[in-house]
Fold this protein.
Amino acid sequence: MKKFKSDIEIARSCKLKPISKILKKINVPDNPKAFSPMGRHIAKINFEFLDKLKNKKDGHLILVTAITPTPAGEGKTTTSVGLNDGLNKIGKKSIVCLREPSLGPSFGMKGGAAGGGNAQVVPMEQINLHFTGDFHAITSAHNLLSALIDNHIYWGNKLNIDEKKIVWKRVVDMNDRALRFIDINTKGVAKDFAREDGFDITVASEVMAIFCLSNDLNDLEKRIGNITIAYDKNNKPVYAKDLNAQGPMTVLLKEAIRPNVTQSLEHNPAIIHGGPFANIAHGCNSVIATKSALKLSKYVVTEAGFGADLGAEKFLDIKCRKANIKPSCVVIVATVRALKMHGGVEKGNLKTENIDALKEGLSNLDRHINNIKKFGIEPIVAINHFVLDTKKEIQTIINFCKNLNVEVSNCKHWAEGGAGTVDLAKKVVRVCNNSKKQKFKFLYKDSKSLWEKIEIIAKEIYRADKITATEDIKQKLKTFENNGFKNFPVCVAKTQYSFSTDPKLKGAPTNHEIPIRDVRLSSGAEFIVVICGSIMTMPGLPKIPAADKIKLNKKGQVEGLF
């Protein structure tokens, strides 16, 4: 069998162009007022330049989502990069907008998020590691607020904060299950107010969500001030602005909030900015990045995390609602391998052709197609081609989509780069040009109760029979509504591996129940987090983490990243 280069080998063989030449493609001038170089191949665009684009007409927004994830891989980011290269290859001015990778999954099980094969954004090592330091800034801003809370209590607690009702945890950008619950202030001068605390992963931080939903620095500061940090002894909410935290936190984020620009292997522009998880947050890159790209290009390819039930629903119901944007086209990525797993095939048996299992697994794709249509959008299916896929398997998916009257394209971007997505690019352009005929709509109205919003998502998207919650959780939802947060959208935190809360239930399960374990108010980000099943806001590392193979070789180069 032919030996293929690893992602990092392919990325390293690319001769990158100076970032000024990449920016020139989207009419960003080579001067200090327009952008700030972060080395030769990465830049941050300046607000001074972006402000001049406000009256420019927006381009077409293309959302790339996927079927329910499996260990076989779907390749959503790879397809996003490949589609962007394909659009540029057919002469269309296009930018891809992605999330920044988190160190947690990069060293854990999922790996990085810079694409793969011949459809990558580069420099791959920097993007997957510290990049421009945005996540470190978000971590620092979040933990500054934590420090200010404990410091306020130490110096007399003028706000009368109930130490048992502090809802603001600490964060770190790493999978570390040992930090989920910790005891703090148990020794030394602060031992008189010992309490239990814990860590979430940085990408689950409300600061990350605010960072990605803010329109500018002023909006960022206002939202940070509105973060609910605790409740006082009269059960009244205490906000970050009560500690004057919004000023110093915004200072820590003032450079990070500017969008990062890099390039693909084919030297097409890529904006990579922000990165909330989709299973425990809203899973989209920053509003600032997306809106900037829409002013800079005719076509903008962006992605939503995990499958369409989590990522696309939140992109459409939360990000589009908050940013006042809408997609012209939605692409659903599917692979033969993943569909066979949804049809009951074990990972070790995926190399063998199995049409029956593939047909069984197509129920998962069918549900995602129908779910996207509920938003008034006609999707396109992109088959992310793997080298061992058979012609009969590919044709089975094509026939299935044609029977549904859904556009479909067999994409070979992993092996061929942009040339492998020319057909998809042409179909996307055609859909975008006819997008005015589509009637985009949200899944639910702002005026619905929080419980009704949760129920609509659970029944319409997950096809659950019912949702369950304790009386305490229902009362928390009523309290949120009484405090003025009824119009907030809901952000469901659940496993990404199934429509249900059981990751073992593949395909398109029905007759299942969605148990709500907790609800949390994100008053700064302006949504309600609904935690379902056993989902963790601080993941753990697998038995053999990706970190096990990451090292420097004798040349001082990184090995093992993927």
